[in-house]
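TA notes, week 10

Several of you asked for a full example with nothing omitted. So below is the full record: structure tokens for the whole chain, then the designed sequence directly under it. When grading your own attempts, check the secondary structure regions first.
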């Protein structure tokens, strides 16, 4: 209907602004997977909208420049090589659906070894029967240490249907020890969660 979220029965939730990267020779990268790792529990894994602005507050529209990425499911990326002028410092915020609950605890069944760290849903369902819904709609991942990682990941498995896997051979360094928790459908949560 075009109404703001606050007037639509709280169907949607808008996150705070995130600025996890600073402009570099490459550009400015505000990608959703990195934001999810750095700011766990502050954003849903499948946003339905994205807003982009300079850190000074000027709104940036997808049609204004040739941005590499401007998508709610991926995030935002400005690459200097594709711009007339260097990329500025940007911030992003997302719109999330409200129809989810966060009611699983954190799980950490694997420890990093020579290969990496895995927290896969299929394994967790076997190890912790009844404690995770079989069809999560979201996943949160963070280092066991609780300290946000400043590493840049090149390839990881990171989704609600598979879980999380970081493989050392795909990284420039070694994977941290990670823990995961899942967002489940309301029907499952209503029978499991204490509100």
């Amino acid at each position: 209907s075009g109404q703001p979220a606050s007037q639509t029965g709280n169907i949607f939730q808008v996150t705070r602004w995130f600025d996890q990267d600073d402009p570099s020779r490459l550009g400015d990268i505000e990608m959703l997977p990195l934001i999810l790792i750095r700011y766990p529990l502050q954003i849903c894994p499948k946003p339905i909208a994205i807003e982009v602005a300079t850190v000074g507050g000027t709104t940036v529209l997808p049609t204004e420049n040739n941005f590499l990425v401007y998508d709610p499911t991926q995030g935002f990326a400005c690459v200097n090589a594709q711009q007339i002028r260097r990329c500025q410092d940007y911030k992003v915020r997302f719109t999330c659906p409200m129809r989810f609950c966060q009611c699983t605890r954190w799980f950490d069944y694997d420890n990093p070894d020579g290969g990496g760290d895995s927290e896969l849903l299929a394994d967790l369902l076997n190890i912790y029967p009844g404690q995770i819904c079989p069809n999560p709609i979201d996943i949160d991942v963070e280092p066991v240490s609780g300290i946000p990682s400043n590493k840049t990941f090149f390839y990881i498995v990171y989704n609600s249907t598979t879980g999380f896997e970081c493989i050392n051979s795909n990284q420039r360094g070694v994977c941290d020890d990670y823990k995961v928790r899942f967002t489940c459908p309301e029907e499952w949560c209503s029978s499991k969660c204490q509100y």
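Residues 32-38 form the longest helix (7 residues). Use that as a sanity check on your answer.
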